[in-house]
Amino acid sequence: MSYKLQFAELLPYWNVLLQGLVFTIVLTVVSTVAGIAVGTAGASARTFGPAWLGRIVAVYVELIRNTPFIVQLFFIFFGLPALGLKLSETTAAFLAMVINLGAYSTEIIRAGIEAVPKGHIEAGLSLAMTKWEVLRRIVLNQAFRKIYPALSSQIIIVMLGSAVVSQISAEDLTYAANFIASRNFRNFEVYLLVALAYLLLALLTRSLLRALGRVIFKAR
Amino acid sequence: MSLVSIRDVRKSFGANEVLKGVSLDIAKGDVVAIIGRSGSGKSTLLRCINGLETYQSGSITADGIEVAGANTNLRELRRHVGMVFQQFNLFPHLTAAENVMLAPTVVNKVSKAEARATAAEVLAKVGLSEKMDAYPSELSGGQQQRVAIARSLAMRPKVLLCDEITSALDPELVNEVLRVVEQLAREGMTLILVTHEMRFARDVGTKLVFMHHGKVHEEGVPKEVFAAPRTPELQQFVGQVG
């Protein structure tokens, strides 16, 4: 048990690591924004939309929530070309992330919408607002306020889970680690460093989201 | 012509028939107090008038619009029929003024400045000028309910439906809300109130409706009806709550 740490051997690869880190951050930010947009639409459809649309959304949500992310990713990247849809690693990674977070956030946001007192919806309708105006002006704001912590956690989960995209050679932080380890065999140092990077990223994201929440929901 | 006309309305929740053929005519300027035991169908009737509940047969017209018509624009109907609820239902993420401004800006496409002026006017009317920028959580129940009334008034309704609007209030807060309603009545606003405030129904109401088992069991001028209830059911009811 006398392993000698040699972080110096990672130095030549600093730009690979940096590129991976940037990719992971961009992937997370984009899929968070797009995923929550999908989730908002999905949750709205399930609660305020026609029944047939709600059923389609329910199938989507259950399909994604009950299968492994890596299988979803492989299906999109390796499976879809059979149907003539050939995506680059990067596009496939982004798409899989959005679809995945979209499904989870649909459920989270739906819970928030359903927690809004029915009386508020009736009050809005009684003021001659349409169902969609009520959703947008009254319900969603309150719903997001309620589920913001849960949604924040899900964003962190998805960010950490994004490591899986390295398996289709999308060049994220984990891909960079694999790449370096396969060159200099310093597995211990590389994965220790990358683990720390993810830890830092997660903690940073968490406090960033908390600060953001305070700004968005500053009223009261 | 009556402002609100209810003709033989029947409504069931599953096998449970809650309205068993209700007919009622309400003229402009009427202050109608609907009383009765819980479960007698009074709140359901009120909610049918602005289309929050549907009914199976009969007809309701409000301001000339058939509520359950195939092509009825409920939005148009609700612009003229306001409603105030037992639980206030203020929007918690908006200030008192913003609560009042929301429908005029969203529905009537009124400018923010104009909506704010209207909000100031109607909030002054309910005695809450100094609370314009307070959030609902910073207001007492009575104040919240007065904001809710102002919010309805901002749409300039022709009829205001009040569904047990003092039932969720602490006893000492009931009067401040009733005073506002009484003032509206004096100004000629058409009001339909489901209420348990018998004294208010007698003193302010122009028409009393006693509902029992899903029907209008007795109706008339409040003072006369209270002084001499014709049916044993109303005699018993008045005896219990009076």
TrEMBL record, chain B:
Record's bilayer topology term: Peripheral membrane protein
Organism whose genome encodes this protein: Bradyrhizobium algeriense
Biological classification of the source: Bacteria, Pseudomonadati, Pseudomonadota, Alphaproteobacteria, Hyphomicrobiales
Function: Involved in beta-(1-->2)glucan export. Transmembrane domains (TMD) form a pore in the inner membrane and the ATP-binding domain (NBD) is responsible for energy generation.
Compartments where found: Cell membrane
GO terms, molecular function: ATP binding
Xref: Pfam families: ABC_tran
Primary location recorded for the protein, binned into one broad class: membrane
Protein family (similarity comment): Belongs to the ABC transporter superfamily.
Domain annotation ABC transporter: ranges: 4-238
Keywords: Amino-acid transport, ATP-binding, Cell membrane, Membrane, Nucleotide-binding, Transport
Designated name of the protein: Polar amino acid transport system ATP-binding protein
